[in-house]
Amino acid sequence: MTHSPLTPGLAAGRLDDVEYAENFSDLHPALDAHEALVAADRCYFCHDAPCITACPTDIDIPLFIRQIATGTPDAAAKTILSQNIMGGMCARVCPTETLCEEACVREKAEGKPVLIGQLQRYATDHLQDKGVHPFTRAAATGKRVAVVGAGPAGLACAHRLAMLGHEVVVMDARPKPGGLNEYGIAAYKTPEGFAQAEVDWLLGIGGISLQHDTALGRDVTLEGLKGDYDAVFLGMGLGGVNALAIDGGDKDGVRDAVDFIADLRQTSDLTTLPVGRDVVVIGGGMTAVDAAVQAKLLGALNVTLAYRRGRDRMNASVFEQDLAASKGVRIMTHVVPRAMHGNGAVREIEFEYVNPDMSGTGQTVRVAADQVLRAIGQLLVGEGLPDLAQGKIAVTGAGRTSVDGIWAGGDCASGGDDLTVTAVAEGRDAAMDIHESLTGAAV
Questions:
Q1: What was the pLDDT predicted at 5?
Q2: Do 82 and 67 contact (CB within 8 A), yes or no?
């Protein structure tokens, strides 16, 4: 075990190789062919299927499940991918338990929905494992579109634009494409390099080029992109993190949860990644849960997730909350951080209990902490952007901003949930609106 000289509580190599491999194995192992047929057979193939309405990308779920049931999983994959080109990733990370599966008639009647997410993964993996791309490009339009951000929204937009015959240049500030899928999602949800494999497969449509290490404002400007391209789509996500302005908040051992997850996702050797003995994660969303669970899986002895409201107000789904609890994460609610204590490095974090209206009770508690991970929300950064609404780019319709020729979607745009599947839908819809704007032809 190797300790950090700056933060004595942090150590790498808390577990052995077997434990790391087991802890970070696939959260939901793939269905085999027989299991997929059995799961598909439970679908009622509803005519007016509520699961379709619950899906942000409007996938025809009964159709693709019927195609699996009839032994044509590649046809099922095309049904999925025609609506959601990142259906493979969404099958792994989408909160199906609060979307399509919650709306499933089987769930309403029996409390056990059809395994829609796992069936979607079965179909898309079956096709993508062959290296087959089911779509071809339309005739070239002669139009060029810039896409800023290689996350789910940007990639979905780029793919649909390329399929419609446009040339697309995707620019991203990071060295790898994928955005949230590559840098921000728990490793046990997307093992074995799936995020990059999906991007490589997506680019098989042709007509898309990538520019890495290219940031809006630093390397390119919005005005410059408008002059060089026929249209611009902004899908760069949220690059900033909300500050935690409390006494001692700048001590060693305190960092943003998104950076912790990104480091974990990019390391090739989990034994080299330091983690505290007593880890506290502040926040109540999916990022907070992903950070807390992974800290536990890295070998932290005690992990506490602290949230200012009740569990019913957490952005993380009940499934994610239960997953955290099952891994040994303690969830504290109705607490607000007031101070961090320690000589140079954090040793304790002091919380005050609050009422449901967020007023303080005066009662405090100190929790041992040699590592604190902030997951209290992200914010949009950048200058010269189109008009904002509540801290995000204001959009109307299919992602139109206040500036002609510029569209936006995903986490950086107003409206919608901060979900991969929602970002894909917004990127796809913006692409079709861009196509109609550039060519006059509706899709």
A1: 65
A2: no
Contacts of 283 (CB under 8 A, 6+ apart): 257, 305, 306, 307, 374, 375, 376, 377
Give Cβ neighbours of residue 227 (< 8 Å, ≥ 6 apart).
none
Q: Are 126 and 186 in contact (CB under 8 A)?
A: no
Bridge partners of 227, per DSSP, are none
Q: In terms of residue numbers, what domain contains 66?
A: 33-128
Beta carbons within 8 Å of 32's beta carbon, 6+ residues apart:
none
Q: Which residues have CB under 8 Å from 2's CB, separation 6+?
A: 11, 12, 13, 272, 274
Distance of alpha carbon 146 from alpha carbon 216, whole angstroms: 11
Domain boundary among 128, 161, 192: 128
Long-range contacts of 108-113 (CB under 8 A, 24+ apart): none
The two three-digit tokens of residue 333, written as one number: 């609610």
What string of DSSP letters covers 198-212? HHHHHGGGSSEEEE-
Across the range 216-225, mean pLDDT stands at: 95
- The torsion defined by the Cα of 304, 305, 306 and 309, in degrees rounded to 10, comes to -140
Helix orientation angle between 420-439 and 152-163, rounded to the nearest 10 degrees? 40
The domain total for the chain is 3
CATH number of 66's domain: 1.10.1060.10
Q: Is residue 365 located within the same domain as residue 403?
A: no
pLDDT band of 382, cuts 50, 70, 90 = confident
Amino acid sitting at position 55: C
From residue 207, alpha-carbon distances to 204, 226, 329 in Å are 9, 20, 46
**pTM for the full model?**
0.95
